[in-house]
Amino acid sequence: MSTTRRPIYLDYSATTPVAPEVSAAMQPYWSDLFGNASSLHHFGRDAAAALDEARAVIGCALDARAGEIVFTGCGTEADNLALRGVAFAARRANSGSPGHIITTPVEHHAVEATARQLHTLFGFDLTLLPVDGCGQVNPDDVRRAIRRDTVLVSVMLANNEVGTLQPVSEIGAICREHGVPFHTDAIQAPAYLPIHVGELNVDLLALSAHKFYGPKGVGVLYIREGTPYVPPMTGGGHERGRRPGTVNVAGAVGAAAAIQYSARQRDAQAARLTRLRDRLIQGVLASVPDVRLSGHPTERLPNHASFVFKHVDGESLLMALDVEGIAVSTGSACTSGNPEPSSVLLAMGIPREWALGSLRVTLGYHTTEEEINILLDVLPRCVARARAASLEF
Ligand code: PLP
Fold first, then answer.
1. Are residues 103 and 173 in the same domain?
2. Which tens digits make up the pLDDT trace of 243-266?
3. Ramachandran category for residue 299: left, alpha or beta (phi over 0 → left; psi -120 to 50 → alpha)
4. Which of 232, 261, 290 marks a domain boundary?
5. For the stretch 73-107, what's the b/e string if a residue is b when 16 or more beta carbons lie within 10 angstroms of its beta carbon?
6. Could you tell me the sign of the dihedral formed by the alpha carbons of 171, 176, 182, 187, in that order?
7. HSE on the CB side for 335, CA within 13 Å?
8. 91 CB less than 6 Å from ligand 1?
9. Residue at 3 is within a domain
10. Measured between alpha carbons, how far is 263 from 227 in angstroms, rounded to an integer?
């Protein structure tokens, strides 16, 4: 970084800083109240009481029962448990049929790779729903894809790469009509959108505390009472047998404090960030040649702007912005000198020469108008530099 300006963080979809009140709430559980929540003595009982309280707070925030909340080690684990837990339950109930899973080609790897492994190693049949040019699924395609042997549908609430929101509530209603368990990865949403499991018609929902101003290494899985589920991890009987392993009490307390913190900020921040985001999008589209918005123009996360630039290497652009002190992200990855476009962008029909130049700018509670102005000022020359380098190459 060569600038003397304060660094600008515009990668809130990757992670968020822990809010001071969240770290204060967690503090006692690293030291004085360090007990194992499974122990019977009073150290354990104090930890168990904190865990019960955290579960109740999260249940309440999601309009779920406390008993339907399972703490996990991260969002990836919550997604893994959801898909495997339901698939294994279906396999146990009907060992004769391979079973069929429906998901989308725009899921995070936590869902995509799990579904793929359930297909390749466990023999589940897999349908990837089509998405349109904005990355959205049509609920009618879900209805058409459901079969007698469908055991699970998984469609994310908000896409991490392009910010597009999916019609989860409608998809959930279709799944419920057909008696098929429905999971959504809602990991990108809670800091910016309200999440009520009843309104979304979901049976399973995954969250990750570090995306809403809580600590890393804590996930939440909502499992609606009565959903068929076989614990994919084996061990002790923690979390009512749904996720074995000594529970991270400080982390659970932090997740609960973070969900309360973000619920208080959410509506005002979503309105403020939508304005900033739209100004950013209009500014970029007006000032940079050969650029397109990726994802849905309006049905997208309030904090999320994403673009593709023709004939630009995404990693070079990211590094050019980093030199200017601005942290963003790209969907393309360069493995062994060979740039690879994001499969999400390709699934949306974006041509390879555009998809290689993807840029994600995600705003957060601490983002200021001045930071957006600086990005708008710096970006055209960074794109020009990265484009010149990629054309030379
Ligand atoms: N799902 C989505 C949509 C995400 O954005 C992420 C993280 O980027 C994950 C899953 C994984 O969450 P975690 O980092 O807590 O494992």
1. yes
2. 999 999 999 999 999 999 999 999
3. beta
4. 261
5. bbbbbbbbbbbbbbbbbbbeeeeeeebbbbbbbbb
6. positive
7. 4
8. no
9. no
10. 27
Render pLDDT for 156-214 as a digit per residue (tens, 0 to 9): 999 999 999 999 999 999 999 999 999 999 999 999 999 999 999 999 999 999 999 99
Enclosing H/E stretch for 9: strand 8-9
Which residue has a Cα nearest atom 12 of ligand 1? 75
Contact (Cβ atoms closer than 8 angstroms) between residue 124 and residue 100:
yes
Which of 213, 265, 264 lies closest to 22 in space, CA to CA? 213
Position 254 scores a pLDDT of: 98
Pairing of strands 304-309, 291-293: antiparallel
Asked if residue 228 and residue 114 are part of one domain, the reply reads yes
Instruction: Give catalytic residue positions.
Output: 334
Residue after which a domain boundary falls, among 261, 294, 325: 261
Ligand 1: which residue has its CA nearest to atom 7? 14
Q: Is 75 in the pocket of ligand 1 (CB under 6 A)?
A: yes
Give the range among 37-51, 90-104, 271-285 with minimum mean pLDDT. Answer: 90-104
Let me know how long the chain is: 393
pLDDT value at residue 299: 98
Asked if the structure places residue 1 within a domain, the reply is no
Q: Are residues 119 and 173 in the same domain?
A: yes
Look up the domain containing 344 and give its range.
Answer: 8-16+267-391
Q: Say whether both 12 and 34 belong to one domain.
A: no
Residues near 286 by beta carbon (within 8 Å), at least 6 away in sequence = none
- Tokens standing for residue 73: 């080690």
Distance from the CA of 246 to the center of ligand 1, in angstroms?
22
- How far is 118 from 232, CA to CA, in rounded Å? 12
**pLDDT exceeds cutoff 60 at 335:** no
188 lines ligand 1 (CB under 6 A): yes
Query: What's the whole-model pTM score?
Result: 0.96
175 lines ligand 1 (CB under 6 A): no
CB 275, CB 353: distance < 8 Å: no
Instruction: Domain count for the chain, please give it.
Output: 2
